Structures are given as C-alpha cells and as structure tokens.
Amino acid sequence: MTFDRIAVLGGGAWGTALANVAARTGRSVTLWEHEPANAEQLANKRESRFLPGVRLEDRIAVTRDLAEAARAQAILLVVPAQAMRSVVTALTAVTAPNTPIIACAKGIEHGSHKFMTEVIAECAPNATPAILSGPSFAADVARGLPTAVTLAAEDETLAAALAQALASRTFRPYQSSDVRGVEIGGATKNVLAIASGIVIGRGLGASALARPTAPSRKR
C-alpha cells in the first residue's frame, strides 16, 4: 500500500502542522478548510491564523471543496472531536470505498459517548477508520521539531503503511492495531494534563502532582 496523495481536513494549528508533515515526505497534499477567512489566508499568505509564523509548504494545495480533497488516497481528519460527525457525514458521498480516514482529534463525542473511530465507522461505513494520537504540540511539529506519535488501525499492515507515509527524520509515527487503547490514552491524557495544570497553578506541590501507585495487597 502506497499513499502518495494525502488530504488534511481542517486548517487549524494541528491541521496545518500535519499538512506540513505530509508535504515534507514528498507526498501530494491537499488541505481543506471550511472557514472562508482562514482558507483565504492559507491560500494567499501561506499561513494559518491559528499558527502564526509557520509557513505552509509550497507543495500543499488549499481548497474549500470537500470533494476535491476527498480524491486523496488517505484522509487526515483534523477537526474538533465534536465536529467529527458532521464532517464525516459530508465525506461519505464523495469518498472512495475503503479510503482510510484517520481521526486526529483526542476525545469522546458528547451525548453518544463514542470514540472518534466509532463515529467514522457509523457515519462512513465504507471507509476504513484509523486514529493518530500522542504527545505533540502543533507548533513543534510544524517547525520540524522531533515528535513521536502512534497511528493505529485494526489492520496493522495498513497502520504500518500509513505510518510510513507520514514518517520523516523528525516525525515518527509508531504503528499499532490497538485502536481503542490509543483512543483511551489520548482522551485521558487531556484530563490528566488539566489536572496537573491545576495542581501547578495552585502550588500544591510535587506530591499532589505525582501519580500514586496502587497499594500492595497484603496476604
């Protein structure tokens, strides 16, 4: 499996960063942005207003046409978790069967309590869901600073091919078939990060910040 044409849906900070990642591997990249003002800035100034100072790679084509973006061989879905359902639903009519749709948002959908790959499977049953997650900051990734993430799909051969398509000297996706584990890790990481920030902000000390270990069971 080769993925020479990659689409990134979402021109925010993370979407811009991942578009740059894919372009630096030599892939043909289409960046879709729904919001007119940001799409215009991406196309004309080659910079996202959500990631100032980071230039969009020249080989990235910017579009507001979802059907044009959907012609790619793999799609990175970089929209907020709560917007995932509406975008995937719109994709269904214009995406070729079995196209990998890779969720790049950490979280669980409000109301349904479904993970992102479950939303993709429900709204686009002919697509192949995958998930990309890990400790990463958009500004670091966009500037080419070293970053490691995990890309998971039920078919690990597919996960490996997708990871290879995005891999570079500074961006390393590790493939996995543990889709649910990756999604749970990404969702809970945000909760722990917020809790850690509260502890630091209130000056509660290192003891409160440390993760407690489970007590040993005495026999």
Low-confidence stretches: 213-219
Q: Give helix % range.
A: 25-40%
Shape field:
globular
What pattern of helices and strands is seen along the backbone? EHEHEHEHEHEHEHEHH
Overall pLDDT:
91
Give the biggest sheet: 8 strands, mixed
How are the strands of the biggest sheet laid out side by side?
A: 3-2-1-4-5-6-7-8
Number of helices, where a helix is a run of at least 4 consecutive DSSP H or I residues: 9
Q: How far is the N terminus from the C terminus?
A: 54 Å
Number-wise, the strands total 8
Query: What's the quaternary structure here?
Result: single chain
Tell me the Rg in angstroms.
18 Å
> In percent, how much strand structure appears in the residues?
15-25%
Class computed from helices, strands and strand pairing: alpha/beta
Task: Based on the model shown, name its key terms.
219 residues; alpha/beta; eight-stranded mixed beta sheet; 9 helices; 8 strands; 18% strand; disordered C terminus
Descriptive account of the structure:
Helices cover 39% and strands 18% of the residues. The chain has 219 residues and is α/β, with parallel strands linked by helices. An eight-stranded mixed sheet has the order 3-2-1-4-5-6-7-8, sandwiched between helices. Helix 4 (84-92) links the parallel strand 4 and strand 5. Helix 4 (84-92) packs parallel to helix 5 (116-123). The chain is globular.
